[in-house]
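Structure in, sequence out. Go:
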């Protein structure tokens, strides 16, 4: 069935969130980060102007084969409005289509990852948000939340990743989180639903019980608890998330790519799409055949003495 575009119920969006909540103090896990070896340069995939002068709501840069995608609305704690959602979709589509890129790092500029959807804009203009009810189509209200990628995406999380911002962080494969960062379903307080994959990805990521703890209470979750839950994969000092996420992306990009992407695709398939254990196992087998040549080359390198004892190649 083909669905049309409908407006959300205005009454749900009229209240404004209190974004003055101070981030929680929490312990952090040390993670060494090398300085970036390649300075970031503007990418040809940079999103078009937002129409407000020369300011762009999404900025992209290229670091070798890594693309960084940054939400650039620090004055609104990187809350996403309609234009930002559209630019995010364009940026991620550009990343997916560019065969020379191996990974993306998704971040927020100015110390906050994303405080959710811009409810202030909605309160001033009820037609500023629309929802495509066919979930197989883009965009979602936050932009790229319904997208799936063939290459790794890493979220560098600083400050708040709450409400729709939490949902955006979940589209990434991994999350590198600063020690003062805060996650949470803050939209619970205002009757705003999770409609950008939060109820789908979060239970798969951390289990139903822990997901419901966040979804039902709307409470803030600091970086250390997020690490214990499995939302965060690395916790780093404040101000280091982007640098460490790019370093992690570079490490992942150094591996043989066909094999890595095949294993990644199989893991996602077994988690979200497989109808049975047997079907998942069959997909894994079928998906591995095309990388056997790459595996033979790797075996030859190992036989020659490379990588023994887990040493880096």
């Amino acid at each position: 069935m083909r669905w049309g575009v409908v407006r959300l119920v205005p009454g749900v969006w009229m209240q404004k969130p209190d974004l003055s909540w101070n981030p929680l103090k929490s312990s952090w896990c040390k993670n060494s980060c090398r300085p970036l070896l390649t300075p970031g340069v503007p990418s040809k995939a940079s999103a078009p102007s937002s129409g407000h002068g020369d300011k762009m709501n999404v900025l992209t840069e290229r670091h070798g084969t890594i693309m960084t995608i940054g939400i650039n609305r620090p004055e609104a704690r990187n809350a996403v409005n309609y234009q930002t959602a559209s630019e995010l979709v364009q940026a991620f589509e550009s990343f997916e289509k560019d065969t020379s890129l191996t990974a993306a790092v998704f971040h927020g500029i100015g110390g906050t990852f994303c405080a959710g959807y811009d409810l202030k804009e909605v309160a001033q203009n009820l037609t500023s948000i629309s929802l495509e009810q066919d979930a197989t189509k883009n965009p979602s209200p936050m932009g790229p939340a319904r997208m799936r990628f063939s290459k790794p995406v890493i979220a560098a999380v600083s400050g708040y990743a709450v409400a729709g911002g939490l949902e955006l962080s979940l589209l990434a494969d991994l999350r590198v989180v600063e020690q003062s960062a805060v996650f949470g379903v803050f939209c619970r307080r205002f009757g705003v639903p999770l409609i950008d994959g939060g109820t789908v990805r979060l239970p798969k990521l951390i289990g139903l019980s822990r997901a419901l703890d966040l979804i039902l209470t709307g409470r803030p979750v600091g970086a250390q608890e997020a690490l214990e839950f499995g939302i965060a994969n690395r916790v780093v000092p404040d101000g280091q998330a982007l640098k460490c996420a790019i370093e992690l992306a570079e490490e992942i990009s150094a591996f043989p790519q066909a094999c890595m992407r095949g294993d990644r695709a199989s893991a996602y398939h077994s988690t979200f799409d497989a109808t049975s254990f047997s079907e998942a196992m069959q997909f894994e087998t079928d998906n591995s055949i095309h990388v056997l040549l790459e595996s033979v080359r790797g075996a030859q390198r190992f036989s020659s003495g490379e990588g023994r004892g887990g040493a880096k190649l």
